[in-house]
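Quick one: structure tokens for this chain, please?
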Amino acid sequence: MKRCLLFLAVAAGLMVGAPAYSQYYFLDVNGDGVNSKTDVLLPDDVLNSTKSSMDVYVVTDKNRDGSTAVCSSAEAFTINQYEFVLHTSGPGSVTFNTWADAMGFTVGLALCGDGTLCTGGGDAWIARGSGTQLAPGKYKLGTVGITVTGTPVVDIVTTTSLNGNAQTDFGSACDGLNFDSLIRLGLDFTDADGTEPTTPVQPTTWGKIKKLYQ
């Protein structure tokens, strides 16, 4: 009986705490259109001084594991704008130099920098939009030009000291949990993968699990 009650309590906690749906932002360093954290057999997305760019992707209608995301207000997960925050950590540095949009979006939405790309202190905030909604799916948002020293890691995060309005999201026909048609990392979804550290993960069962979820 106690075990049943414990199971029900845990299940209830998970249902309350989980977001209603999910999507997926990720970085691609090696040009294969995927992030190596999703599969231990993929070439690693690792930064070093030979790297001069990395691509940024969003999947608006599926989760990291490929399962279908569901909009609680029943609209499609279209996209008409994007914004994301990149944060550098680890041994080395990344300078974010340029942004090349791949969506045909022409309106800069960042409130610092040149209106599209705002950088400083190892962070970058990139934001751009359009008046046209595009169909749900996987999109290469664009390519950020970088200068790398050492072997740092870049993650996709939710905030930055660059500007209090900066966040990671995409605009959509779906209402989102804040009912403003923005689907936000950390609120509406949690799946986001940055680059990997250069320290290899040992090819053991635990090592493979660690690589998948680090």
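The chain has one domain: 21-213.
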